[in-house]
Design a protein that fits this description.
The structure holds 2 protein chains of 2 kinds. Chain A is built from 2 helices and 11 strands, in the order βαβββββββββαβ. By secondary structure, chain A is mainly beta. The chains are: A mainly beta, B alpha+beta.
Chain lengths: ~230, ~290
């Protein structure tokens, strides 16, 4: 089914995609002429496949549950923000805060993302084939961020229990983020993520892993004089 | 919030459509800044002639022309909505002095190829009032404002122009503009309003008058201007964009072989020719990008 945003309103298109007749066999949809509109495919909750043909604006595929969304173009701020499950695959670049606060599902970005990729992520797996901007994985709580390119300043600042796997260079690490030794379990996590994004698993050896030094978890008595 | 847009045409075949392109860009950014709007258009240079963009609360062109023609020789006045474009051979220093004696006229900008228009109201109405669609030229910069720092008036609207053929639009807010305003005023840069962006415009004018390039001046600004900003700045020769190091304020660039377009959001460019095959990227924080002759 083709949904044309030049002919139908955004509200109507989203409404159609949000209220799928579960008995029907219609599972494959296409959205054409997105023209940078905001909140395209936000709040989907069924196991459907939607291809967006072009560039989107803010919060594309936000709050996604179950749906498999493919974007043939770039996405604006907050793609797949607060996603719960399902897959979002961006064929171009993503703007700031990709996958912000998302609880689950998989976000694959073929290009680069700008700053704050995976900010406050809570369980999502994010795979970026290019590079990420500054403050990525800021306050990341759970889940995995895989970066095949480089990372900007302050990677993983104030990170909790999320993992960062990175192949390229890290410009600088944020507070309380440190390199970790990758064990078998971590390697298996990375292997399955690379597989999801159709990246050759022999690349595993080129990745480094970063996580929390856990020094910000408890009050440090040495800092008492600051108060 | 605020919306900022800019377009630089590499291919002259689009020059006659510049106003049309900018109209679409401004209209779609009306949601980011619904309280006032403005734009600057650069068209071909008139040798030895100056164009003064003036906002007037009295609409009688004839009367104003008559008044001014006593003091200014060879004057041509064109009126569009509440603005006048006054064309004359008189040099800026002298002309600006004369304008100071006319309280009903306030100078918006001047130069050999720039024309600036700004007004309070929804951007969609503002562009209609000034018939932006009909303008042609080589590059243009626009702004839709959601006021934060100063009052909703024409003086508080962008673009700001504090030098010949210069203009600046800004999305964000500066925190050290009071100090900077004082130090620039001491250097003789005229800053009229209490607006933060006008100070940044003055900062750029000061840099350019020190024979620095626009790019160098904006790089210096990264050290001297404190606050949040995405700036688009225009000169006779082209335009440049810079975002502060934190880059909270958005910007997208679309470049094709025919033009370079900048906007706060991609949707402002969706109507431009062949934009889907353009090279689209977000300017990196703390980096200056410029295009021009």
């Amino acid at each position: 089914m083709n949904l044309n945003l030049k002919k139908e309103s955004l509200r109507k298109v989203n409404e159609t995609l949000q209220s799928i007749d579960r008995k029907s066999n219609k599972k494959i949809f296409k959205v054409s002429n997105p023209d940078g509109n905001h909140a395209i495919c936000a709040g989907l909750k069924d196991e459907i496949e939607v291809t967006i043909d072009g560039h989107t604006g803010y919060y594309c595929a936000g709050m996604n549950m179950n749906a498999n969304i493919i974007v043939n173009g770039n996405v604006g701020t907050g793609v797949a923000e607060n996603m719960m499950s399902g897959t979002v695959h961006v064929k171009g670049n993503a703007s700031q805060s990709a996958g912000a606060t998302a609880h689950g599902g998989t976000l694959i970005i073929d290009g680069d993302t700008s700053s704050r990729c995976g900010i406050s992520m809570k369980g999502i797996d994010i795979i970026v084939k290019g590079s990420v901007g500054h403050m990525s994985a800021f306050m990341a709580q759970s889940g995995n961020l895989v970066i095949c390119g480089d990372a900007g300043d302050a990677l993983g600042d104030s990170i909790y229990e999320a993992n960062i796997f990175i192949k390229g260079k890290v410009k600088s690490l944020g507070a309380d983020c440190e390199e970790k030794k990758m064990n078998k379990k971590d390697q298996n996590i990375l292997r399955s993520l690379l597989k999801k994004a159709s990246i050759n698993e022999s690349e595993i050896k080129n990745f480094k892993m970063y996580g929390s030094a856990r020094k910000l978890y408890n009050f440090n008595i040495d800092n008492v004089s600051e108060y | 919030m605020c919306g900022i847009v800019g377009i630089y045409l590499k291919n002259k075949k689009y020059n006659s459509q510049l106003g049309k392109f900018l109209t679409g860009m401004m209209n779609s950014m009306a949601t980011r800044g619904p309280d006032s709007a403005g734009f600057a258009i650069y068209s071909s240079e008139k040798k030895k002639k100056y164009k003064y963009s003036v906002c007037s609360n009295t609409y009688q062109v004839k009367e104003i022309s008559k008044k001014l023609s006593k003091q200014v020789k060879d004057i041509k006045v064109k009126s569009i909505s509440d603005h006048l474009i006054i064309e004359t051979v008189m040099k800026p220093k002298k002309f600006i002095e004369i304008l100071k004696n006319h309280d009903e006229l306030s100078l918006v900008g001047y130069g050999s190829c720039i024309e600036i228009f700004k007004q309070v109201g929804n951007p969609k109405d503002v562009v209609k009032n000034f018939s932006l669609e009909k303008f042609s030229g080589s590059h243009a910069i626009g702004h839709t404002r959601m006021a934060t720092e100063s009052a909703i008036t024409t003086d508080g609207s962008h673009p700001y122009s504090t030098g010949e053929d210069e203009c600046l639009v800004h999305n964000g807010s500066l925190s050290n503009h009071n100090n900077l305003r004082r130090s620039l005023q001491k250097k003789g840069i005229e800053i009229k309003s209490m607006n933060d962006t006008e100070v940044a415009a003055g900062y750029i004018s000061n840099g350019l008058s020190d024979k620095k390039s626009l790019k160098e001046t904006l790089l210096d600004g990264l050290k001297d201007l404190d606050g949040f900003y995405t700036f688009i700045s225009g000169t006779k020769n082209g335009m440049a964009i810079v975002r502060d190091e934190i880059a909270c304020k958005p910007a997208v660039v679309a470049e094709t072989k025919d033009y370079v377009a900048i906007a706060s959001e991609f949707q402002a460019m969706a109507h431009l020719p062949n934009v889907n095959s353009a090279k689209i990227f977000e300017p990196e924080p703390g980096k200056v990008y410029s295009w021009g002759k």
